[in-house]
């Protein structure tokens, strides 16, 4: 097995694999929402901007940075975030 999803499918079968996949997708969506809320709270506290500005600004900056830099930008970003 080279990935967790393949292991889960082999270990638990396709039915449970689907439940695990849906649970994972839901968890990721909730985590993204919490991260955006916390970003808005920090930006509001530091800069006094309305809470809706930070998620919109992040939604504009992050994809443009990824598109302009490609995969290398994503890799550098991950390294910078997890090295500290």
Automatic annotation (TrEMBL):
Keyword DNA repair: no
Stretches that traverse the bilayer: 20-40, 52-76
A GO CC term attached to the entry: membrane
GO terms of molecular function: transmembrane transporter activity
Record flagged with keyword Membrane: yes
Major subcellular site: membrane
Membrane topology: Multi-pass membrane protein
Keywords carried by this UniProt record: Membrane, Transmembrane, Transmembrane helix
Database matches in InterPro entries: Na/Glc_symporter_sf, Na/solute_symporter
Subcellular location: Membrane
Family: Belongs to the sodium:solute symporter (SSF) (TC 2.A.21) family.
Full protein name: Na+/proline symporter
Lineage summary: Bacteria, Bacillati, Actinomycetota, Actinomycetes, Streptosporangiales
């Amino acid at each position: 097995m080279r990935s967790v999803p393949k292991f889960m499918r082999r270990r638990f079968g396709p039915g449970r694999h689907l439940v695990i996949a849906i649970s994972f997708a839901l968890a990721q969506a909730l985590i993204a929402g919490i991260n955006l809320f916390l970003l808005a709270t920090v930006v509001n506290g530091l800069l006094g901007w309305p809470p809706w500005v930070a998620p919109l600004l992040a939604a504009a900056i992050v994809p443009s940075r990824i598109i302009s830099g490609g995969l290398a930008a994503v890799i550098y970003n991950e390294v910078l975030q997890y090295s500290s």
